[in-house]
Amino acid sequence: MAANLLQKRWGSAGTIITLIESRDIGIIGVGEGSTPQLKAFFDELGIAEAEWMPRCNATYKAGIEFAGWSDRPGYERYFHPFATAVDPFTEPTFFTATALRRRGGDVPAHPDPYFLATRIAREGRAPLAPANFPFDIGYGYHFDAYLVGATLRDFAVASGVRHETATIAEVSLDESGDIASLRSDDGRTFAADLYLDASGFRATLIEGALKEPHRGFGENLFNDSAVVTPTPLPAAGARAMTSATAASAGWIWHIPLTSRAGNGYVYSSRYLDRDDAAAELRRHCGLAEDAEVRHLSMKCGRAERSWVRNCLAIGLAQGFLEPLEATALHIVLATVKGFTAAWEQDDRDGFNAAIARRYEGIRDYIVCHYRTAQRRDTDYWRDATSHDRLSDSLKQLITTWFTGGDLEAEVHRQEIAAYYAPMSWHVMLAGYGNFPPDERARPLPASPVDLDAVERFVHGCALNFPTHAEALSRLSAA
Ligand SMILES: Cc1cc2nc3c(=O)[nH]c(=O)nc-3n(C[C@H](O)[C@H](O)[C@H](O)COP(=O)(O)OP(=O)(O)OC[C@H]3O[C@@H](n4cnc5c(N)ncnc54)[C@H](O)[C@@H]3O)c2cc1C
Fold first, then answer.
1. Which of these three, 248, 273, 297, is where a domain ends?
2. Are both 174 and 229 inside the same structural domain?
3. What confidence tens digit (pLDDT) does each residue in 110-131 have?
4. How far is CA 470 from the centre of its chain?
5. Binning pLDDT at 50, 70 and 90, where does residue 477 land?
6. Do both 27 and 148 map to the same domain?
7. In whole angstroms, how large is the CA radius of gyration of the chain?
8. Ligand 1 pocket, residue 404 CB under 6 Å
9. Structural contact between residues 140 and 82, judged by C-beta atoms closer than 8 angstroms
């Protein structure tokens, strides 16, 4: 991704970009869901969906369904939709409903009926607006990570990026401490003005050679491990959504591709050992006790600074947040874009501060999932829902919600809407049923919330959209 973007931005000015990959080390091979920013990336490079999606077994994604995170009746699952240009017609009613419900009024405040993307995904449709429906519909993708890596490498090479297969064994620094060159295990030397460390969790340049400290997120995000396995596609075919289902010490993703589904259990090794995690994943997926699985360790946190001397860390070398909201590729894009602008304006400190804020902003949203989930059945969930190691920003957001305050204004006041918009915060907090108990809810004499009207509108909008299966077969035929 970085090679493609840099080539597009700087290639025509004569900058030579070389991509080095190691055959011996390989890629991590997970990371199969995206946010809508990946669409903007392909659009910017001028790569049509028909060119890359069939090649990468890709499907559309309208959002993420969270299941089993709350045991409050009626709130067992909810959907975090990607934003659409139709939301302004329903979102204000949803915000009003959640505010009234938080203050004890008996109004329908579960997020699902209010959002078009939710209905599109649940009805097995694709988030592709036809020409007669002139509203932008944000969407992301699911894809095979190996195939996307290879496809993007091929696009990069076709656009002029040089490609080398080599395993870097040594990094030389000059007398000032900058990286002077890299040496491969077969004796070749690679020298450049600028190095991007995209070496994965190894962080060979940023941490290994430049000794930039790593700031861990373990104190409020407990998960440090994953176990993954593929399954055949369900008979109903792929729906345009990721599922994130809570489990005894973490959560399990389900990501449908055109060829198979990817499944993974993200868990905390402090609460569950790897064999029990594998057994729980197999049971969840309906697999035999000896079905093959792959175990991974996750290094959660970020480099203190992403741009150090003549090195920019990117991807897993730069940092990693557990993939609950599938934000890693989105951060790659924000990093490359922010970096090229900062490089041209010589604003290293401003860039590093902005990236740190982005990580912390996304981290807080993920921490909020755990902190406000309504599940207490294991030590893991009792600890995750009760600790007080929250940033000041998150404390203020949660306090605003529970004291019946204006959460939308608070998100804007803190200038964090660029990481998660007010809609996302409302959807999560309402989706877990963070409201006064139902039995104490007071009927309102004249409720301003007409849920039937909202549902008729969302239903009517959804009728315009093709089924997911139709949309995928049109792509393959193109
Ligand atoms: C469990 C899990 C689930 C995830 N889910 C998501 C998700 O749903 N959505 C999302 O956006 N992201 C997700 N991610 C993150 C995503 O996988 C990564 O951001 C993405 O794959 C990019 O990885 P990378 O290129 O930084 O590292 P890697 O894939 O590890 O690639 C590292 C590269 O560096 C090369 N290399 C390493 N050392 C050397 C060396 N010495 N010499 C030469 N080359 C070297 C390797 O050959 C390889 O090409 C997930 C991650 C994990 C762990």
1. 297
2. no
3. 999 999 999 999 999 999 999 9
4. 26
5. confident
6. yes
7. 23
8. no
9. yes
Mutational pocket test of ligand 1: of 1, 18, 23, 30, the residue with most ligand atoms within 8 Å of the beta carbon: 30
Supply the residue whose CA is at minimum distance from atom 30 of ligand 1: 200
Are residue 213 and residue 306 in the same domain, yes or no?
yes
Q: What is the pLDDT of residue 382?
A: 97
Residues 205-236: tens digit of each pLDDT: 999 999 999 999 999 999 999 999 999 988 78
Instruction: Measure the CA angle with vertex 153, ends 30 and 300; round to 5°.
Output: 30
Shortest-distance Cα residue to atom 22 of ligand 1: 315
pLDDT band at 19 (very low <50, low <70, confident <90, very high): very high
| Residue matched to tokens 């997020």 | 111
Any atom of ligand 1 within 6 Å of the Cβ of 422: no
User: 338, 359, 380 — which closes off a domain?
Assistant: 359
Q: Is residue 384 part of a domain?
A: no
Task: Name residue 20's beta-bridge partners.
Answer: 164
How far, in Å, is the centroid of ligand 1 from the Cα of 26? 9
Nearest residue by C-alpha to atom 3 in ligand 1 = 31
Total count of domains within the chain:
2
Same domain flag for 234 and 347? no
Range of the domain at 153: 2-32+144-218+300-359
Other beta carbons less than 10 A from residue 311's beta carbon: 22
Does the CB atom of residue 329 touch ligand 1 within 6 A? yes
